[in-house]
Amino acid sequence: MREVAILGIGQTVVDEQWNKSLKEIGGEAAFAALEDAGLQRAEALFVGNMLSPLVSGQNQLGTFFADWIGMWSRESVKIEAACGSGAAAFRAGLMAVASGEVETALVVGVEKMTDKAGHDVTAALATAADADYEVEQGVSFVSLNALVMRRYMYEFGWKHADFAPFSINAHANAVHNPFARLHDLITLEQFEKSSMVATPINLLDASPVGDGAAAAVIVPAEKVRGFAGRPKVTVAGSAAATDTMAVHSRKDPMFLSAAYHSSRRAYEMAGIGPQDIDVFELHDAFSIMTALSLEACGFAERGQGPRLGLDNEIRVAGRIPVCTRGGLKARGHPVGATGMYQIVEVVQQLRGECGKTQVDGARIGMAQNIGGSGATILTHILRATSD
Amino acid sequence: MREVAILGIGQTVVDEQWNKSLKEIGGEAAFAALEDAGLQRAEALFVGNMLSPLVSGQNQLGTFFADWIGMWSRESVKIEAACGSGAAAFRAGLMAVASGEVETALVVGVEKMTDKAGHDVTAALATAADADYEVEQGVSFVSLNALVMRRYMYEFGWKHADFAPFSINAHANAVHNPFARLHDLITLEQFEKSSMVATPINLLDASPVGDGAAAAVIVPAEKVRGFAGRPKVTVAGSAAATDTMAVHSRKDPMFLSAAYHSSRRAYEMAGIGPQDIDVFELHDAFSIMTALSLEACGFAERGQGPRLGLDNEIRVAGRIPVCTRGGLKARGHPVGATGMYQIVEVVQQLRGECGKTQVDGARIGMAQNIGGSGATILTHILRATSD
């Protein structure tokens, strides 16, 4: 595979963007990434999105956006893998460039969730689960995660407050990210007293959805040179893996086997191990997922994920900084866009553009995006080089 | 790009498969293709589908099918480009293998349309058009095509009966295809007297939707050898192109510019021209589209597509045989699956497996799949070799 690099990045704020359409939100991120890359257009467009058919009545988003940003006669396609759509689109763009078929790929993750009422969005999000065997039983996405979290607490002896550091860290970092949805610090007391959503998951365990888009331009690595203050960022590892659709089909619902497999393949491709990762943007849709991701990716023993939070190891100055721009918890979770936000944020870290949440000397960053309750998991490892 | 070959193909009948679920239909084609390839599993799964979120309440079809067919821990993703989803998934699989990231890719195009009532499906199909500027005006997909056909007849002086040979040919060929939805010969008189759908498009100008799935296994070409009675089938050309989403935004709504661009790029990649194509599976969703595709791909002058039908040049023994297995018109149009049916049918022709509709000595075949009213168009050229 020929090596690829990320030449440009762009993002919009994550928020309830009532005054902007799907088209405008995705276009804003796309144009920002192209401008950052110094390009007018790309040769191919890969759009990651989950909900537009259900929420906006719009399919064929590849060409929909190609049209809007003036990329007629070029290639375009939409990729969907539930909340993993963003990273799945990134990997499709990556393979297109790696294959030699495409010289410049623009990847846009976009989601417009406020075109429908909240209960419709909850129903739309449930299409990520197994329609016949999970959704028909009345389970929602948050309740699936609640079942896993309750079992995890029972098996490994954690109490709810032990998950607080994950959310506190995410909120603390988001304060310094102008694109984040939430900008308020939270305390342990607030975490414990927050409204219940689906026991044991309360409002501060859960990530807020929102409208947003993030984008990146991928090119062959040999065409990029780093320059003063802006290193070249290459894709050192990329892998996807799947698990069963339904949580109840898994031998061990508390182990993210797709995170394990995709991270191991990405490490192998990059020739590194978890100890080499300077920053990790993980998929903290719910606080339990932070623990499970850290364990599956080799940063903690089974059942010991919360320990990293309690020991402050996940903070910007810690051993494995996570959610440095706020994570899903506080930057927000515009579902099909989230994977691209993670990529963009890792690039920002490797470029040293993160101000008060900059990880000192970050050279290798990892992004992990999850579709469904751990059903589709993509892991990307990015590396800053100075050549 | 490393050259790739198609090692196995599979398909289900196109029909109203009331007794089978989305899962079962896609799985049937997937298993058939794997069996044909002599494999138990593939390394990665690419699913082309348009309507499952709207019709079956199911997203994340990549992992949904990976789970069903036992491809856990492997890679899987869904690709959507409206009715062009099948070929778009094929191209994504192709690039994954071409990049060297994947050694065996299984591509499945699948659509289950009978889970909802007809008017719901019509509304779901309209999500291929521009939601804000077309669908909001009340236009349906067939009426968009009717506007184009009416204008074309006016501009170039054709009458409705001049399009009859396209449908008559498709029906005649489908009689010999056990996977086709329709198996009845039609006459010019029937064509002229058929019920009106949206003037000038009547029932026999339009393709029937249906449930169905078709699949193929893609591998590096160097790993395949042709053998007696079954040549090696390689992908000689692959290209995608886009046009504006809305038909009214085009300078010339009667010219499929995305068909022009994608076919030219595919010809160039294959080092051939239209005169070298032995068989052409085109996207005859409506009879007008047959004329427009033939013109944009270089088989007829502008406005002269119907002449090829009237002169019998599109028949199996003609200059450019089209719809040799029935086309969308009579094999049926399970929208997100159609592009994969076309690929499978071209492979059948190159293998010489088409019985009474076999094109003698077919060595080079082309498949063209269209998403929206010409908005996304993918062209693939396959070649039979004996090495």
CATH architecture of the domain at 4-118 and 209-223 in chain A: 3-Layer(aba) Sandwich
| Spatial gap, N to C terminus of chain A | 20 Å
Q: Count the DSSP helices of chain A.
A: 13
Low-confidence stretches of chain A: none
Radius of gyration of chain A: 19 Å
Instruction: Calculate the mean pLDDT score of chain A and round it.
Output: 96
| SSE run of chain A | EHEHHEHEHHHHEEEEHEHHHHEE
Q: Quick one: how many beta strands of chain A? A: 11
Largest sheet of chain A: 5 strands, mixed
Strand order of the largest sheet of chain A: 1-7-4-2-3
Q: Going by CATH, what is the homologous superfamily of the domain at 4-118 and 209-223 in chain A?
A: Thiolase/Chalcone synthase
Helix percent band of chain A: 25-40%
Shape of chain A: globular
- Pair with the biggest interface: A-B, 68 and 68 residues
Please, what is the oligomeric state?
homodimer
Folded structure, characterized:
2 copies of one chain form a homodimer. With 387 residues, chain A is an alpha/beta fold. Chain A has a domain at 4-118 and 209-223: 3-Layer(aba) Sandwich (Peroxisomal Thiolase, Chain A, domain 1). In chain A, 34% of the residues lie in helices and 19% in strands. In chain A, the strands form 3 sheets. In chain A, strands 1-7-4-2-3 form a 5-stranded mixed β-sheet, with helices on both faces. Chain A has a 4-stranded mixed β-sheet with strand order 8-11-10-9. In chain A, β5 (196-198) and β6 form a beta hairpin. The relative contact order of chain A is 0.20. Chains A and B meet through α3, β3, α4, β8 and α9 of A and α3, β3, α4, β8 and α9 of B.
